[in-house]
Amino acid sequence: MKLTRLRGFQDYLGADARALGMVEDCARAMAYRHALNEIRIPALERIELYERSSGETSDVVQKQLYRVPRASDSPGESDQALRPEGTPGVIRAYLEAGLDRGDPEQRFFYCGPMFRYERPQKGRLRQFNQFGVEIFGRADAACDAELIIMIDEFRRALGLEVRFEVNSLGDGQCRPAFRAALLEWGRAHHAELCADCHQRLEHNPLRLLDCKTDAALAQSAPSGGDYLCAPCRAHFATVERLLGVAGVPYVVNPRLVRGLDYYTRTTFEVISSAVGAQSASVAGGRYDGLVEALGGAAVAGTGFAIGVERTALALAADRHAAGGAPDAAIIAIGEAAIASAIELARELRAGGLRIELLSPDRAVKASFRRADRIGARHALILGDDELRAGVVLMRDLRASAQATLPRGEVAAALAAARG
Known about the structure:
CATH architecture of the largest domain: 2-Layer Sandwich
Strand content: 15-25%
Number of helices: 16
């Protein structure tokens, strides 16, 4: 039998892996600037964690969990699941450390693989990576705005063109009236709803707005903004005002409810038209009741998750970013040049340049073919003549032009060419 990867799982090689790393590195830099602390959580958790957080009627629990039977030597253990998202596990760790009562205001980020059993397509895999941010102990609208501003900094650093969509779902005071209105609307349109929405109708009618099949029909559904209480209306108005102050472009999408049961008040998504059908590359919102629902104190919470693969797809589509072709390939000709080439490569890498030192066993023509294949912008040639003169022959592989430079000027020339 030929051994191949499982359906919905992906290998990443070379430029594809570099693109994922570029997204993660940029997100980590963003987290550092915003004084977030890293948290690492297990990939395997009790199923009850997701039933109580994501909601027993959510697609995550009903359709997408990778369930793992308990170990035979642990009869008292419940069944487990590979994590489909990061937020519940972060909250579980937060509670287990006693932070909800001892030091509730915390700012975390995490990065790692998630697992969902669903139909694979572009931008949707059964194993995917998320970079997430969770902030606890902040109920203020400024915190919601900070998260969206944080994402705007991230997308600007990567040079991505995206659209921010925001909405407010209300809270425990005003959302019941909105829910009742949606329930009444759904019952009146029952014959027009898809099979999935028939199941959602009685358990979580807000999910009717989240359905792709019935998207056109949902345009006639009640709008949550019409049901917001005064505090929720003021909270959302503050979020909008602060986004305006920060210069973050956004649109209000009253149909944006997200696919999980725990969201309250502010929700948001970042949409990239470059990704295709799975266009949301970042999503998040406020979940003030979730910490308490999982057994903790009444601590506010809010956060978001970046889809690393989807962002890398958007990056590649927006900027054809292979994510790290070498600035130069070094070709050493002759035994004496090898040591000098190693020293030159080390100097250039220390200056932040990406350098590949080619095998000295290759013929010169074969070395140029290799440099072209890896996408190097320049080739740097060192031979006996160059060593004696203290220079480097620098060939622009795109322009088919070359120049002889003093060795000390090579780094500046490569940096200038990079732009």
